[in-house]
Amino acid sequence: MAEVFIKPQGTKEEQYAALYQQICGVLSSETDTIANMANVAAMIQTTFNFWWTGFYRVLPTDDGEEQLVLGPFQGPLACTRIALGRGVCGTAWQRKQTIVVPDVDKFEGHIACSSESKSEIVVPIFKDDKVVAVLDIDSAQIATFDATDQLWLEKIAERIF
Ligand code: SME
User: What pLDDT, in 10s, does the model give residues 144-159?
Assistant: First the structure.
């Protein structure tokens, strides 16, 4: 089915409300998680033009552990694997909570995939109370993300699985 995306306008709150509505529509017609992650990354990126928007999935490693592995994203090249507790993504996974980083240089252990990234938000995605992926967004400006971003991105994350 061909999808038509109407770029949301207005305040950030209004943009997120319109974005969320369109995301729900797109996700309701597709069951494949990778396809849905790809389209969600595209829709978030088209709306806000962030530096990087993408997903890391929790996947098993050869030694029986788990790692975050790069999934669908929009933006420049990114690191492919992140261990539990490492970086902002691995910390959000470990803590099972959203992390908002106003200045990545002040987050100890931040993994710099790009020197252009200045602030970041990472939202864990749950399935049956287990973190199965994270939504990671980087901004080229300091302190881009606030409680409004957290609220709406958590609502979006709930829709992925
Ligand atoms: N900055 C992240 C790594 C992933 S990239 O930003 C795409 C982190 O510290 O976990």
Answer: 999 999 999 999 999 9
CA of 21 to the centre of ligand 1 (A): 27
Per-residue pLDDT averaged across 20-40, rounded? 97
Does the predicted model carry a pTM greater than 0.85?
yes
Cβ(78) to ligand 1 under 6 A? Answer: yes
Whether 99 is in the pocket of ligand 1, judged by its Cβ within 6 Å, is no
Contact 40, 48 (CB under 8 A): no
The per-residue pLDDT for 3 is 73
| Nearest Cα residue to atom 1 of ligand 1 | 111
Question: Is the shortest distance between the CB of 52 and ligand 1 below 6 Å?
Answer: yes
Give the relative orientation of helices 33-48 and 12-28 as an angle to the nearest 10 degrees.
160
Give pLDDT, residue 2: 57
Instruction: Give the separation between CA 78 and CA 65, rounded to whole angstroms.
Output: 22
Nearest residue CA, atom 2 of ligand 1? 111
d(CA 76, CA 125): 22
